[in-house]
Amino acid sequence: MNSTDVAVAVDEKLEDMDSEVGSAWIAQFHGVVHPQNDSWQIEKPIVLLISDSTWTLIVKDSMFRVLVQGPLRTDAATFRNEVMSVLRGVLDSLGFHVGVALTPELHGFFAFIADHSAAMVGVPEVGWSELTGRDPSVRLQVSGDELEPFVSAAAEAPLIRLALADLAMAIERPDDTGFYAYRAVESARQYFRSPTDSDDRDIPWSRLHAALAFTKDELLPLAQAAKSRRHGEVQPITETQRLEALRLARDVIGRLVGHHAERAGDRASSDENR
Fold this sequence. Notes:
Layout: H1 3-20, E1 25-34, E2 46-50, E3 53-60, E4 63-70, H2 76-98, E5 103-113, E6 119-122, H3 129-132, H4 144-156, H5 158-172, H6 177-191, H7 202-212, H8 216-230, H9 239-272
Antiparallel strand pairs: 1-4, 1-5, 2-3, 3-4, 5-6
């Protein structure tokens, strides 16, 4: 089935929804499934009843469409995260059987009232300007001076490399943002652990607090945000809560990279003076 076939299948489903209810909102999310070297598909549309909405998921020719019919969601970003999480669950189910990690890439969405009296369209922002503080109207680029200490730290310190990977996962996986954000900070704690330390976890935490100028209370919200998922429980999280957790974790890792660069500079100066 090609992209035209997918569009036809979606149009037919939308017509069915139009005939079922005239005042409910219908939202459609669309994108592609990676890796795209195979034509990933699920034979029939999957129809789910979630809360007070009807969801239809279509995966054909490594493309996806998710149609949601129900009440209008006022928090569009949190709703988008919910949709992508459910879609990931479907793709993970397929990936379980074929031994492939399948990743959805959202290209856009639109929503409208079935009687066509109102509509909205959205395209996902490349880069999270609210998180990074960068101007969204300016082309995404990073200067060499900004990037160099991060690249060096990632190459030299496996724990920093793992922390950066966890921050990437915290962005990619909305349901697990708190878990991955805190695990990045846990890697920072391990960075300050010495092989001669006892099993007392407070020792490396104290070193982190002193070196990076954070207090225990300042980092406590991250530990709380991660607790449920660390124990395999479900903990709903809003886009605002995700942003708060990621900002804090990024601040910790950013300071850690700066600390690592200073230590590397001190070692280089010491070697030159010998």
